[in-house]
Specification:
The chain is an alpha/beta fold and about 220 residues long. The protein has 2 domains: about 150 residues, Rossmann fold, CATH 3.40.50; about 60 residues, DNA polymerase, domain 1 (Orthogonal Bundle), CATH 1.10.150. Helix 6 links the parallel strand 2 and strand 3. The longest helix has 14 residues. The N and C termini lie close together (about 10 Å).
């Protein structure tokens, strides 16, 4: 595919719920944190609604009565996530999509609410790190939906917002893209439903990773 036939030069992916099926693990671990720390247990939907935010941003939302225990809550979650044995496979077709886009000359990047150690670990264990020219985590920039992650990627890669697209599973991803004046593509198989994603006006919402290619 030639450069002129591409709608976008840069494709930026969220990680959790977009490339990797981590939603169940995140929900279970956050609920376990509540039990361990003696806090009201959030519902699955409450946890889904905060996926994509940085942990320091998440904790006051889910546990407003434990403002004095925020650092303990963050550390407890990190330990729960590391020790949890729930499987987190890549979504079917996600690896093939990344490989195909890379081979066709797209510039690929990641913008995730994961902390840097967690993202780096996943890039190594999945073997996908070599395909992404740049990455941003919650350790590197302001939490989504602040556009700092996207703006810094654009600057590093010397790409304009009009030539880039954000792919994510959360309304938080869609809003971040809008804040950066960038197009967004929603995926309905992650944290948020198609209807919720559409409320943030993405260019499209797809049902599988393989559906993304036709929009690029």
């Amino acid at each position: 595919m030639t450069k002129d036939s591409k709608k976008y030069q840069l494709v930026i992916f969220d990680w959790d719920g977009t490339l990797m099926d981590t939603i169940t693990k995140i929900v279970v671990c956050m609920q376990d944190v509540a039990k361990q720390m003696g806090q009201p247990v959030p519902s699955e939907q409450q946890v889904r609604d905060i996926i994509g935010l940085s942990l320091p941003t998440v904790m006051p939302i889910l546990f407003p009565n434990a403002i004095d225990k925020q650092e303990e809550l963050v550390e407890c979650y990190r330990q729960q996530y590391k020790s949890c044995t729930i499987d987190t496979p890549m979504f079917e077709g996600a690896v093939e999509l990344i490989e195909q886009l890379y081979d066709e000359g797209y510039t690929l990047a990641v913008a995730t609410g994961k902390a840097r150690p967690g993202l780096d670990r996943m890039l190594v264990t999945t073997g996908l790190g070599k395909y992404f020219k740049a990455t941003r985590s919650a350790s590197d920039a302001a939490s989504k939906p602040d556009p700092q992650m996207l703006n810094s990627l654009l600057k590093e890669l010397n790409v304009s917002a009009i030539d880039a697209v954000m792919v994510g599973d959360s309304i938080i991803d869609m809003t971040m893209a809008s804040n950066a004046e960038m197009d967004a593509i929603g995926v309905s198989y992650g944290a948020h439903s198609e209807a919720k994603l559409l409320s943030a006006n993405p260019v499209a919402v797809v049902n599988t990773p393989s559906d993304i290619k036709g929009l690029l």
